[in-house]
Amino acid sequence: MKIIKATFVLLLGLVLLVSCRTEDDAFIDPPIEEAITANSTVANLISRTTQNDGSPDNIIDNASCLSIQLPVTVIVNGIEITIDDEDGYEEIEDILDLFDDDVDSVEISYPVIVILPDFSTVTVNSDEELAALATDCVGENENDDDIECIDFQYPITASVFDENNELIDTITINNDEEMFDFIENLDDFVAVTIEFPIILILADGTTVSVNSIQELITAIENADDSCDEDDDNDFDDDDCESCSTSDLDAIFTECAEWTVDKLERDDEDLEDQFSNYIFSFSSDGMITASENGNVSMGTWEASGTTGNITVDIDIPDLPEFNDSWTLHEIEEETGEVKVDLRIGDDRLRFESDCATDDGGDVDDSVLVNALTTGDWYVNLFFDDVDETADFADYVFNFATDNTATATDDNGTTNGNWSTGFGDETDLELILNFGTGIPLDELQEDWDVIEVTDEIIRLRDISGDGTEDLLTFGRTPFDGGMGGDDLEAILADGIWFVASYTEDNDDQTAIYNGYEIDFESNGTVTASNGSNMNNGTWMVFSGGNQMALNFGTDAPFDEFNDDDWDVISVSPDEVTIQDVSGGNGGIDTLTLQKL
Predict the structure, then answer these.
(1) Over the stretch 75-114, which tens digit does the pLDDT of each residue have?
(2) In this predicted model, what pLDDT tens digit does every residue of 10-49 receive, in sequence order?
(3) What pLDDT is stored for residue 284 in this prediction?
(4) Cβ(337)–Cβ(243) under 8 Å?
(5) % residues pLDDT > 90 (the chain)
(6) Residue 348 burial (CB < 10 Å; 0-12/13-18/19+)?
(7) What are phi and psi of 182, to 5 degrees?
(8) Are 84 and 72 in contact (CB under 8 A)?
(9) The model's pTM
(10) How many whole angstroms separate alpha carbon 162 and alpha carbon 30?
(11) Torsion angle of alpha carbons 11, 14, 15, 21, nearest 10°?
């Protein structure tokens, strides 16, 4: 009996021991389906999502799998700049985009530290060494390993188990590099789990929560290739990260006529086939495509969230256009707008000469209120030559009933005025004082450049690109702004570029640190301590115009022009402006005295 009893007790103990152990193991063992193992599908997807993305600095190294550790010094078209953060890449692009007909170059000041896909680093001492490393990268816009359309939201907690399935460590992962290293070293652990839920960030900024390994796999696989990974060699060419459907609706419908600037399907360029087509987009989702009187009708629709817009086009007669395109870029310049759509390597880019600024920013009511209040005088009239003096004796008055008078010692000439819009958005002032000399020269549809209570500035660009200027002011013409005064002001002291816009694109930052010295002998120098730009300058046309020439010295060669219009002059600030004849673009330069 004792033996039987002892045996029973022993068996009972073993049963209890096994039962307790099994229950404990169930508590600490990682669920098999939630364990992450080396070289598994989920491990490979996490690794590809977290590896170092080398595409943001492609404008420097032309390699999407490499990145250069910041800060780095580069020489862009002869201008030396130091890049401290990713905002500096845009500064490089601004310099490269200054001119379309020059040869662009970005030279790296070596040595630099290059970060590889696995976050290891190597010191590089020459272009040749960098090119050798870049051979491991795929070409521009080719599919690469890294997944850039989804990111992890950190921190993430991981649990590590030993061979006895006992929890031995809990690890907090704070960034992509730590996650990448963790996945790369999975072989060091017996079993690993991560704590759910995990938050993932999609390319459009929205988030998704996943609660299992399978949901994580599905989310990453769905995100792969769902956005433009920007693996070309321009910086931030995807300018539609903040574009919305309403932005596209406004652009498409405000510009009445569009042409096909680019159409590429399956590596075949097709735009020449549609060179005579005019496209119109209506706000109700209709497309009209016209060619020599033949009209094809279709539909268009923009959908999606900010930064991730899909444009569906369906024109039954033109199947080459029909698809669900991704909005890649909206490029707005003076007198020109481009909408770039893409699907993988296929591209469709519409172009319009619809002006997006210049008088379009001047409110019609502001012009009418100023024009019909008080007397006006011609302070500038320029038609190939300065003819302002021809109007020196005239006083102009504009009535609210659209009649106008021009009065001088010989009497009053009656005329009329009206406002309108040219090229859909440019505000115009239409003047007509009959055929009498010299008032007949004012008969134009003038583009409105600027309106204040004290000044109305107008211009007219003819078909051959020549430019006429007309400025009304509150005080009579006194012989000009005073050439001697402007020359004396510029020659008295040191100046700097307070602002410079080219076709309304702000380029001021390029000139930060430069001091400009105008000498009375007609020479000018601009220096920032390391670069010296030498040029010449001249004031003419009664102080209404100015010429600058810096030869080929960048970046001041951008200012080279022999007919800058003098807009305003004070002892401490001078503003000049140039209107490009061909496209109506406006360059505005403001100098301030140090």
Answers:
(1) 988 888 899 888 788 778 767 755 544 567 889 999 999 9
(2) 333 333 333 333 434 434 454 545 788 888 999 999 999 9
(3) 83
(4) no
(5) 31
(6) buried
(7) -60, -45
(8) no
(9) 0.42
(10) 11
(11) 180
